[in-house]
């Protein structure tokens, strides 16, 4: 494991060189009612952890209620370092988190929800786990604030199935709610070009040292969740297509079983046809035709999902489009690279390659 704690710098370097910068990445969609509470939470985080610097990166995912403007106004005079990234439309929370990761400047980045459902004390537990050498710290909900229902059951079932059947066993079986990632992981994930993405799945796939922190989810103070069942279903499909061979393999297994069933039904049809009332064989043939037709359509749909996503990646459309970026409340002026504006991963891949070459050179000198 890598120790992420900073070592003291030589005199004259300045105090900020010794203090790690933590990027708080928060996607928001129509969260105007929670803006004031969000600013207060970030202020409390900074006051509770004077040995760290924090920057707030709020990514507005196409809000129609003025969320970004309200946030800029609420940040005025607070001294909070912040960057407000406004997307051109609603691209989804995982695309918004990607935009936040790619514009973050911290030694690590931690996602939080705009609905203020993570307790303040969980921040310290995440930071301690990161400083102990873990590059990825997952946050899983021990209890949920929402009542039990279809959506809740879907989320739990998906997390368990995905943990069991995906190609990334490090994905938390309980289902992650938030995550902290080191700069090394950020560089790897930012270079990934997938258009239809589960950002948590990409983080888990990247590997590195991973740990999990459980927490009690708080009740949402205002507004309603924008995480609809339709969005959950899309995430399930995206995740299984990107990280699991199970759908294709199940199609193959069922096809083999269907061949055996077809032979058995054909034999039954021959026997029935030989009987005096031989007309019963028609029903067996009809049932077999309907069964094979339905399964064929289902398997074509599965294959179509893979082909569609391959086409999406081949078209190389940006994952998101940025309308504007505002550095406010004392944030250092750092120009936003073009690839962040259009969501391309090319320069991020180059940056990660340079980092790997640099580490190889260091290893060679040490050896």
Question: Which key features would you list for this structure?
Answer:
367 residues, alpha/beta, 15% strand
Summarize the structure.
This protein has 367 residues and is of the alpha/beta class. It has 12 helices and 8 strands.
Task: Please provide a written account of the structure.
The protein is of the alpha/beta class and 367 residues long. The chain folds into two domains: 15-228 and 319-366, Spore Coat Polysaccharide Biosynthesis Protein SpsA, Chain A, CATH 3.90.550; 246-315. The chain is built from twelve helices and eight strands. It has an eight-stranded mixed beta sheet with strand order 7-5-6-4-1-2-3-8, sandwiched between helices. 32% of the residues are buried. Residues 7-16, 331-340 and 351-367 have low confidence and may be disordered.
- Contiguous runs where pLDDT drops below 50 for at least 5 residues: 7-16, 331-340, 351-367
Mean residue pLDDT: 73
Q: Major β-sheet, in short?
A: 8 strands, mixed
| CATH level-3 fold name of the largest domain | Spore Coat Polysaccharide Biosynthesis Protein SpsA, Chain A
Distance between the termini: 20 Å
The computed structural class is: alpha/beta
Output the radius of gyration. 25 Å
Number of helices: 12
DSSP summary, beta strand count: 8
Provide the domain count. Answer: 2
Under CATH, the homologous superfamily of the largest domain reads: Spore Coat Polysaccharide Biosynthesis Protein SpsA, Chain A
Question: What is the helix/strand order?
Answer: EHEHEHEHEHEHHEHHHEHH
CATH architecture term of the largest domain: Alpha-Beta Complex
Q: Indicate the percent of residues in helices.
A: 40-55%
């Amino acid at each position: 494991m890598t120790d992420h704690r900073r070592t003291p710098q030589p005199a004259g370097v300045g105090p900020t060189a010794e203090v790690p910068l933590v990027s708080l990445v928060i996607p928001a969609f129509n969260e105007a009612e929670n803006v004031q509470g969000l600013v207060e939470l970030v202020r409390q985080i900074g006051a509770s952890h004077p040995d760290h610097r924090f920057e707030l990166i709020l990514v507005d995912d196409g809000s129609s209620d003025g969320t970004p403007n309200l946030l800029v106004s609420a940040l005025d005079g607070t001294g909070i370092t912040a960057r407000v990234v406004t997307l051109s439309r609603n691209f989804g929370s995982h695309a918004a988190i990607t935009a936040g990761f790619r514009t973050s400047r911290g030694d690590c980045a931690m996602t939080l929800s705009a609905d203020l459902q993570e307790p303040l004390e969980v921040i310290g537990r995440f930071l301690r786990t990161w400083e102990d050498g873990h590059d990825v710290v997952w946050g899983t909900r021990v209890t949920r604030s929402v009542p039990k229902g279809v959506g809740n059951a879907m989320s739990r079932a998906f997390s368990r199935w995905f943990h069991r059947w995906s190609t990334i066993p490090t994905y938390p079986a309980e289902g992650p709610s938030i995550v902290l990632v080191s700069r090394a992981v950020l560089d790897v994930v930012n270079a990934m070009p997938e258009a239809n993405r589960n950002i948590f799945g990409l983080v888990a796939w990247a590997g590195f040292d991973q740990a999990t922190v459980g927490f009690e989810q708080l009740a949402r103070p205002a507004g309603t969740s924008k995480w609809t069942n339709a969005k959950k279903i899309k995430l399930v499909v995206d995740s299984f297509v990107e990280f699991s061979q199970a759908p294709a393999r199940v199609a193959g297994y069922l096809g083999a079983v269907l061949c055996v069933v077809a032979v058995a039904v054909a034999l039954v049809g021959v026997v029935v046809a030989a009987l005096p009332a031989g007309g019963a064989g028609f029903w067996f043939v009809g049932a077999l035709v309907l069964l094979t037709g339905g399964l064929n359509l289902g398997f074509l749909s599965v294959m179509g999902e893979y082909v569609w996503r391959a086409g999406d990646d081949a078209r190389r459309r940006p994952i998101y489009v940025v309308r504007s970026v505002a550095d406010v409340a004392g944030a250092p002026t750092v120009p936003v690279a073009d690839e962040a504006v259009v969501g391309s991963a090319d320069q991020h891949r180059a940056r990660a390659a340079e980092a790997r070459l640099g580490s190889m050179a260091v290893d060679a000198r040490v050896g």
